[in-house]
Write a structure and sequence with these properties.
The protein is an alpha+beta fold. Helix content is about 30%, strand content about 25%. The chain has a five-stranded antiparallel β-sheet with strand order 4-5-10-6-7. Strands 11-12-13-14 form a four-stranded antiparallel β-sheet. It starts with 6 loop residues before the first strand and ends in an 11-residue tail after the last helix. About 45% of the residues are buried.
């Protein structure tokens, strides 16, 4: 199957792209890396009338550290994130997660901004944005907006972006002191869509977690920052405390059934990952009794 007929324009600048989006509104789609958009169009899951190609806008590429902020341009490709020494130094969670994004051919062309704007609930990078407390920067004709990652993803393939806005960059706190991370996903094969996954970032003080952000993906219509993490912060952790957090996690999730897994299986896998995560972050194998909860 091939895409429905559409008109096409290659933007010459961010300002030009915004003019085109303003003119065509919700009839337009933005093309960056094209690794999600083009397959969806070819399957006729979506049929935009106008494509705005921003792939040549070099002003939207690049990774820089400014003070205590790591800024990543929206058109930075997955492969460049994976190889970036700045990302390794200041957001190693991203480096680890990128290796699980599809396959090398996809990572060579796919972009950070494209992944976030596509907002696939089984995607790794939106969950990483939650775990890393990212700020997503979007621009429209009226100016720039800064949106916290937790407010950016609003539903399955839905975000806080308006049709006339462009995602231009992401900003992350640059490697907070005593920070540690965890990433794992369950998939039938490496590179397949995740059955369920967890991206986590924590601050360690002594033998305790001073802060913990648990971002689960493939568990609902968007990545979810688990409230159960609060039960694990600030005090001594025992298997009983971790079990209590697992019980709370099951209560707050409402996962879906599909051909990959049932809702009950996803709840179980989420608890498995929570236990493994806390055990790994604190180097406490005694908290992981067989990797299950």
């Amino acid at each position: 199957m091939k895409a429905s007929a559409f008109s096409y324009a290659r933007a010459t600048s961010v300002a030009n792209a915004l003019e085109l989006l303003e003119a065509h509104g919700d009839r337009a789609k933005v093309l960056s890396g094209g690794q999600s958009l083009m397959p969806a169009m070819n399957l006729r899951l979506i049929s935009p009338e106008f494509i705005v190609d921003i792939g040549e806008l070099t002003e939207l590429r690049g990774i820089v550290v400014r003070g205590d902020v790591l800024r990543i341009g929206a058109l930075t490709r997955h492969v460049d994130l994976q190889r970036s020494p700045e990302v390794v130094a200041h957001a190693p969670l991203l480096t680890e997660a990128i290796a699980h994004v599809a396959h090398p051919a996809i990572r060579n062309r796919g972009t950070l901004g494209g992944s976030l704007a596509h907002a696939d609930p089984a995607s790794e990078l939106p969950a990483c944005m939650l775990a890393l407390n990212a700020t997503i920067i979007v621009r429209g004709q009226a100016g720039e907006r800064r949106i916290g990652a937790q407010d950016f993803f609003t539903g399955i393939y839905e975000t806080a972006l308006s049709p006339e806005e462009l995602l231009v960059a992401v900003e992350l706190p640059a490697n907070p002191k005593n920070s540690v991370h965890f990433f794992h996903e369950f998939a039938r094969r490496h590179g397949d869509y995740a059955i369920l996954g967890l991206a986590a970032q924590a601050i360690i003080e002594g033998d305790a977690l001073a802060d913990l952000r648990l971002a689960f993906f493939a568990v609902g219509d968007r990545p979810v920052l688990a409230k159960a993490a609060r039960k694990l912060v600030g005090g001594a952790l025992t298997p009983a405390v971790v079990a209590d957090a697992c019980a709370a996690l099951s209560e707050e999730f409402d996962p879906h059934d599909d051909q990959q897994a049932s809702a009950s299986m996803r709840r179980h896998l989420a608890k498995v990952l929570l236990v493994r995560c806390v055990s790994a972050l604190l180097a406490r194998p005694d908290l992981d009794a067989g990797g299950s909860a």
